[in-house]
């Protein structure tokens, strides 16, 4: 019986150690100080998925697609106005197909000084793809975003944080500065590839600091929002408050088609009002990755 046919309880030590050791958190990247002596760093991100989630699921009906269209048509302008008003830079992770559907939106991100970064081709599920297909789609997405935004993307967030056995090798081949799909810390760290330092920065994410799990509903499944928007505000404020106390990073993942709705947008605005009381460094994921890499001598 080969290793792949074994049940996990039958694995020998080399097998379970091998799985755990493939992609691992390395040295912490916690700088002694933030730019300007700020008390903490804030990295806001928006995954501009729009129509690509239903498309990825082969749900091509107009009703489903219109839910994604809301993100681009209504959510993004609302978000950009707020960020402009508060002078906050952010990172927009965008599937290439979403960028091709909304090229004017990509230009608006760039004009406002935001970062545009990789988020797959059509929000594909990497863990269901052969390595060669994942590689081809990721490279094609990088070329497409470069054409649309005028700049080669330097960071990736895998769609649905679906980080496959092949993702790290593909990101390294692309020469990316950072990934933002893994969850081994609250603070940035260097990614290890089979124990070897990669020089690549991880800006960790978590479902706790994501709007989708709290707000998403599906008419025909049991997926229903279970946390009221003000409850989400309370959770995110607590996450921020402890990051501030620790002098660390507060990173947040949102989606224009989710947080862009009025009753949820109010939560984002109140959170930004709360953070506005403190001396903070607001950075794109690229600026953050560059800073921690330099300051920590990576
Ligand atoms: Zn996404």
TrEMBL record:
Q: Which Pfam families match?
A: Polysacc_deac_1
Instruction: Report domain NodB homology positions.
Output: 62-283
What GO molecular functions are on record for this protein? hydrolase activity, acting on carbon-nitrogen (but not peptide) bonds
Give the highest taxon in the source lineage: Bacteria
Q: Which GO terms describe its biological process?
A: carbohydrate metabolic process
PROSITE patterns with a match to the protein in the record: NODB
Q: What is this protein called?
A: Polysaccharide deacetylase
């Amino acid at each position: 019986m080969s290793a792949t046919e074994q049940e996990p309880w039958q694995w020998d030590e080399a097998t379970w150690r091998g799985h755990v050791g493939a992609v691992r958190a390395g040295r912490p990247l916690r700088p002694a100080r933030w730019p300007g002596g700020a008390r903490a760093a804030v990295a806001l991100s928006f995954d501009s998925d729009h129509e690509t989630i239903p498309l990825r699921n082969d749900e091509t009906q107009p009703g489903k697609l219109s839910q994604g269209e809301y993100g681009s048509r209504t959510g993004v302008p609302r978000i950009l106005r707020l960020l402009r008003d508060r002078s906050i830079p952010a990172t927009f992770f965008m599937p290439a197909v979403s960028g091709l559907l909304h090229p004017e939106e990509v230009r608006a991100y760039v004009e406002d000084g935001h970062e545009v970064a990789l988020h797959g081709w059509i929000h594909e599920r990497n863990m269901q793809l052969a390595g060669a297909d994942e590689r081809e789609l990721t490279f094609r997405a990088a070329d497409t975003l470069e054409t649309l935004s005028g700049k080669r993307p330097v960071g990736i967030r895998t769609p649905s944080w679906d980080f496959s056995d092949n993702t790290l090798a593909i990101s390294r081949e692309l020469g990316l500065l950072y990934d933002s799909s893994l969850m081994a810390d609250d603070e940035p760290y260097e990614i290890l590839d089979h124990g070897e330092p990669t020089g690549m920065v991880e800006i960790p994410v978590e479902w706790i600091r994501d709007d989708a799990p709290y707000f998403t509903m599906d008419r025909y499944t049991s997926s229903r929002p279970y946390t009221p928007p003000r409850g989400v505000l309370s959770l995110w404020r607590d996450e921020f408050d402890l990051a501030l106390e620790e002098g660390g990073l507060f990173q947040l993942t949102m989606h224009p088609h989710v947080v862009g709705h009025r009753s949820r947008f109010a939560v984002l605005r109140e959170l930004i009002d709360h953070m506005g009381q403190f001396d903070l460094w607001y950075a794109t994921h690229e600026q953050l990755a560059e800073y921690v890499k330099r300051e920590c001598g990576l």
